[in-house]
């Protein structure tokens, strides 16, 4: 397209790796390296340990309450996948969207993320979220009923582990005496993006996060959420710290269902991403819904071609 040479002035662009579905180890590396070569900002993976064969929990990010992909798909574990990708790349950022932190021991998570940031040279974006799948919590022996306290305490613990020389913690859900835990992450702080669309989730992101992770936002909807976040952030003890808004954008290489961005159309791709940026997004994580590794590789190349002048 002739207009591919027009300057792109939208937000930074990330790409979701094909971490679920049929991708091989080489597929994952190929997509990550293509995204890096195309000048994209980041590669992203989601987080589910295991889907129960039967469950009744409702997914709050979807209008119909359903999980949008087959629940029997193979799924790669998030931090292991990003560690693998870190060794095959050198500059692209490595993002989790988003770790269900209340399901895990935060000290173990803190050690794993610090290690990944250290070995990757400071490239981690760590998203956290409350979690919605009660049956997955049950399978992991985690307390679904206390997940809000576990998330908020967990964020405090992660910051202590990463930023204090000999961290300790005393709270309702966890406590430990001073620890030696090194090496520390390269970044200070490691950015923590907090997910969720509810008012309490937005307040949590504004109060304690370095960013907010949204899902499948239109520009009009995103603008309303960002306005609320900005007001809440003014009252945060972290108000003087940078704050990043990230959202996913469903996409396909070719025509797809309504609301799915066709990455073969350069003008629409640029205008859609730019509109999300104008609505407040700093980073857009493009998600190829098929999770097909070949299509995701094509998506990386298309995004580089359409938006190369700003990347």
Task: Kindly summarize this structure in a few lines.
The chain has 311 residues and is an alpha/beta fold.
Architecture overview:
With 311 residues, this protein is α/β, with parallel strands linked by helices. The chain is built from 9 helices and 11 strands. An 8-stranded parallel beta barrel has the order 1-2-3-4-7-8-9-11, surrounded by 6 helices. Strand 5 and strand 6 (175-176) form a beta hairpin. The radius of gyration is 19 Å and the shape is globular. It starts with 11 loop residues before the first strand and ends with a helix.
Task: Tell me the overall shape.
Answer: globular
**Beta-strand content estimate:** 15-25%
> Average pLDDT value?
94
Percent helix, as a range, is 25-40%
Uncertain segments of ≥5 residues (pLDDT<50)? Answer: none
Contiguous helical run count:
9
Q: What is the rounded distance between the termini? A: 18 Å
* Strand order, sheet with most strands: 1-2-3-4-7-8-9-11
Order of helices and strands: EHEHEHEHHEEEHEHEEHEH
Count of extended strands: 11
**Oligomer category:** single chain
Structural class: alpha/beta
Radius of gyration: 19 Å
Largest sheet: 8 strands, parallel, barrel
């Amino acid at each position: 397209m002739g207009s591919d040479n027009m300057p792109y002035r939208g937000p930074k662009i990330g790409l979701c790796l094909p971490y679920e579905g049929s991708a091989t180890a080489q597929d994952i590396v190929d997509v990550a390296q293509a995204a890096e070569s195309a000048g994209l900002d980041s590669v992203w993976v989601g987080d589910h340990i295991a889907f129960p064969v039967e469950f009744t929990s409702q997914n709050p990010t979807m209008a119909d309450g359903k999980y949008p992909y087959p629940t029997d798909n193979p799924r790669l574990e998030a931090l292991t996948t990003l560690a693998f990708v870190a060794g095959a790349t050198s500059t692209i950022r490595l993002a989790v969207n988003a770790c269900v932190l209340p399901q895990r021991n935060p000290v173990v998570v803190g050690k794993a993320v610090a290690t990944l940031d250290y070995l990757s040279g400071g490239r981690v974006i760590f998203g956290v979220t409350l979690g919605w799948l009660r049956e997955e919590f049950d399978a992991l022996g985690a307390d679904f009923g206390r997940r809000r306290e576990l998330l908020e305490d967990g964020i405090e613990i992660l910051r202590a582990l990463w930023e204090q020389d000999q961290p300790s913690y005393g709270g309702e859900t966890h406590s430990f005496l001073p620890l030696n835990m090194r090496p520390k992450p390269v970044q200070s702080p490691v950015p923590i993006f907090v997910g969720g669309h509810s008012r309490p989730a937005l307040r949590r992101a504004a109060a304690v996060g370095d960013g907010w992770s949204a899902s499948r936002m239109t520009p009009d909807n995103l603008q309303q959420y960002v306005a609320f976040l900005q007001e809440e952030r003014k009252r945060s003890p972290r108000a003087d710290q940078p704050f990043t808004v990230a959202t996913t954008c469903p996409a396909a290489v070719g025509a797809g269902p309504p609301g799915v961005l066709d990455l073969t159309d350069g003008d629409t791709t640029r205008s859609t991403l730019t509109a999300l940026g104008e609505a407040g997004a700093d980073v857009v994580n493009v998600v190829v819904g098929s999770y097909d590794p070949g299509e995701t590789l094509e998506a990386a190349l298309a995004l580089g071609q359409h938006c190369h002048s700003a990347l």
